[in-house]
């Protein structure tokens, strides 16, 4: 791990920082005091907090300053302290199992079950899938999260909800900034960004480069990402903003190990992965626009996007896909009073269409990694029309009622243009569904209570419908939720409890006809859980007070119980079994001393007290684990910020996540994805 060279680099970095500080007065330029700047198209973080607080369910606004206190690379880094968001890195990489309330829990790649947006414009492809490598944490000013059915007013009816990355603009972050991170296993990350505004126009651009050899063999990564946005305030009440994003992502895939292999040497790769040089490489270009018009009590928003993606993915065969996706959306918000009381009506329309040329090639020989003969070539077309409406009406005495619904018409069409044609390869599937919602919230002076009943709906993506004799129905569900959030003196909290009944959940089980494990529709399943986030000043300081020092315990507890209620095949009755993929408890926390001059220091924790089932027949589980880390640094609004972070100080061997299969038969199968060992990282920011 080259610890000696890493430590020498860290010492040099610290000495440089101290030299800078000795030559300057330590002005208390603390992040908490930064200016809130907003435009018509991009609201400020504070405005988003007020907006999300109107939702009668689990929501969160993640300020980028929270995760920039340490290494900011994986989704697990970004959502480390976000209750309800399970982000488990696949091999210390961008790819991960990203799941909310059990959404898409069997995916550790190319996510599903969550709508992911950039500044309110979806980045999901038309069939619902999204690429985690297209997300850049250092390009976001903050991130909005709606868990479960709480994203209905933003056009998402999936079980997992929505995540929206909000960009810096030339208004919110004028000037220039650079951030560099280094660390174990030759980890490198460089971000260069800058923005300015002149009159009615502003521009912001972010370039990010990330590379690493990886803790494991055959786990190298190299990513280039460019994000630009240009805003033009045409009039006081009218603004348009254009977005241009370009991504090139190259990733080696080390594959899964057995438990015995992992315990013997967690750094090794699966031999088949190195033999075939298995990878996931792609290029992406995205052009988008968001235009906002305010007229009296009405706000109109129009969105559009075009995405071009070229995927080269040698794995069990060589997958070669070229896709083009189009999105157009329109929504309106009216905040006129109704019968003398506050009322907010929001309605919208989202249309998306995508075409994919999906080809597969054999390898040239059993021991080769080179592309051989073409096996098949499919033309895949996905189209969606979604409409949604939600109304919030003030009842008085702090109570607000919420009612709404979304309706969708979806189509998934596959045509085999080259290769063997079977009855399952050519299909044209159509789906229609309405997902209702009703909620109630009570707003107190410093706390809120809420409850809601919401429907969820998700048609299968092409990954689920392309194989034989499998999922053809859409996944639907109904979730009931209660919770509270607020602050009292030295404590802040956010608690949500939910229970969902789901029909036709998209899960991998054994097909008794083909005797192959493939994705199918489970008859009836249930998802239940708790999401608790707390932030406590152990020195007893009120959060509204300006104090010199704080000792803050920030924690996120995610509990989930996911099980089959009714699903039986000719081979097995799954009723009562736990759905594989996620551990029941995920607890993450940090205990940081924070100083008014921006300094912080303290330990970090991750604890999984019970392992996750790997198979739906519940014959094999991963092991529990606990990780301890430590970070120290300083964050300031302008000038030099820095951090040093150590992770997995106990050097524990553990599975960060696992695959999901139908039946392991109690055997030690190769489904374990080892997490990183002891690592040290450091970073420096400069803003001017």
Quick summary:
By secondary structure, this protein is mainly β.
Describe this structure in words.
This protein is mainly β and 688 residues long. The protein has a single domain, classed as Maltoporin, Chain A (Beta Barrel), CATH 2.40.170.20. The protein contains seven helices and 31 strands. The strands form four sheets. It has a 22-stranded antiparallel barrel. The radius of gyration is 25 Å and the shape is globular. The N terminus is likely disordered.
Secondary-structure blueprint of this entry?
Blueprint: H1 3-22, H2 45-52, E1 59-63, H3 64-67, H4 75-78, E2 85-89, E3 96-100, E4 115-118, E5 121-122, E6 140-147, E7 161-167, E8 175-183, E9 187-198, E10 201-212, E11 221-235, E12 238-252, H5 259-264, H6 271-275, E13 279-295, E14 298-314, E15 318-334, E16 343-363, E17 371-396, E18 399-418, E19 427-443, E20 447-458, H7 462-465, E21 475-488, E22 491-511, E23 516-537, E24 549-566, E25 585-595, E26 599-608, E27 625-634, E28 639-647, E29 655-658, E30 672-674, E31 679-687
Parallel strand pairs: 4-7
Antiparallel strand pairs: 1-6, 2-3, 4-5, 6-7, 8-9, 8-31, 9-10, 10-11, 11-12, 12-13, 13-14, 14-15, 15-16, 16-17, 17-18, 18-19, 19-20, 20-21, 21-22, 22-23, 23-24, 24-25, 25-26, 26-27, 27-28, 28-31, 29-30
Number of helices: 7
Average pLDDT taken over every residue: 91
The best one-word shape is globular
State the separation between the terminal residues, measured CA to CA: 34 Å
* CATH homologous superfamily (4th level) name: TonB-dependent receptor, beta-barrel domain
Q: Work out the helicity level.
A: under 10%
| Fraction in beta strands | over 45%
Query: Regarding CATH, which class?
Result: Mainly Beta
Number of strands: 31
Query: What is the CATH topology assignment?
Result: Maltoporin, Chain A
Query: Per CATH, which architecture?
Result: Beta Barrel
Largest sheet: 22 strands, antiparallel, barrel
What structural class should be given to the helix and strand makeup?
Answer: mainly beta
* Low-confidence residue ranges: 1-35
Instruction: Give the domain tally.
Output: 1
Rg over CA atoms = 25 Å
